[in-house]
Design brief:
Shape: globular
Strand content: 15-25%
CATH architecture: 3-Layer(aba) Sandwich
Bound molecules: 2-amino-2-deoxy-6-O-phosphono-alpha-D-glucopyranose
Radius of gyration: 17 Å
Largest sheet: 7 strands, parallel
Number of domains: 1
Helix content: 25-40%
Strand order of the largest sheet: 1-10-9-6-2-3-5
Distance between the termini: 22 Å
Structural class: alpha/beta
CATH class: Alpha Beta
CATH topology: Rossmann fold
């Protein structure tokens, strides 16, 4: 893993935006894998700014999102589709038929998982996958214990994940208990991965990632076996790893 250390969240977001814009410029018909959560919000804001300054266009870009809650409609403010539309898609010139977020209200969720995989394959695979990390090491919604060989699947969310994400909902009872998520193998099949890590709340996970073993108990650890991973991490997230 190529680890780039930065001062803070803003610097992480700027570096990440430069990274993604560079790939959009250099890859023909780029396919991006996108993530939700608080971590990549700054990245998306900066990408929008670069688009407004005519530094980048999304005309030839295809995107796949990592995950979606089961049971939330596209127009639900807590759905990841809504998040992506609000935070990125509606502000740039992306063709919406080149955007795929798993459908969390599909009648047949197993079929939806297969469709997500099929669409990624048809697009030629993901060129660059953006990732955040959960406090428990989850990537996408692949909770500890998920087989490394998993493809897009329906997952039961960890209680810790439900609690962490409750901040976006009126009450914890409203947080969905399941999600559709790209699997770990799906993520590992990406040609390149960009992992963003910021803040003290991620310091423990960052220390485990850097110093721990590769184990299904800590899903992000598999990234050490991918040959093209860049981690952009800020000082606050490195406090435990660096013993500060
Ligand atoms: C969420 C998402 C992940 C995200 C992670 C961290 O549950 N499913 O894709 O990376 O948890 O979120 P945050 O960036 O808000 O800390």
């Amino acid at each position: 893993m190529n680890v780039i250390k930065v001062k803070n969240y803003d610097e992480m977001s700027e570096k990440a935006a430069e990274f993604i814009v560079d790939r959009i410029h250099t890859i023909e018909n780029p396919v991006l894998g996108l993530a939700t959560g608080s971590t990549p919000e700054g990245l998306y804001q900066r990408i929008i700014k670069k688009y407004e300054q005519n530094e980048v266009s999304f005309k030839d870009v295809t995107t796949f999102n990592l995950d979606e809650y089961v049971g939330l409609e596209k127009n639900d403010p807590n759905s990841y589709y809504y998040f992506m539309n609000e935070k990125l898609f509606r502000h740039v010139d992306i063709e919406m038929d080149r955007v795929r977020v798993p459908n969390g209200v599909a009648e047949d969720l197993e079929n939806e998982c297969r469709e997500h995989e099929r669409a990624i394959e048809q697009a030629g695979g993901v060129d660059v996958q953006v990732l955040g990390i959960g406090g428990n090491g989850h990537i996408g919604f692949n909770e500890p214990g998920t087989p490394f060989s998993s493809k897009t699947h329906v997952v039961d969310l960890d209680q810790s994940t439900i609690q962490a994400n409750a901040r976006f909902f009126k009450s914890i009872d409203e947080v969905p208990t399941q999600a559709v998520s790209m699997g770990i193998e799906t993520i590992m099949n990406s040609k390149e991965i960009l992992l963003l890590v910021s803040g003290e709340a991620k310091a423990d996970a960052m220390a485990k990632l850097l110093n721990g073993e590769v184990s299904e108990d800590f899903p992000a650890s598999i990234l050490k076996q991918h040959d093209n991973v860049t981690v952009i991490v800020d000082e606050a997230a490195l406090t435990i790893a660096e013993g500060k």
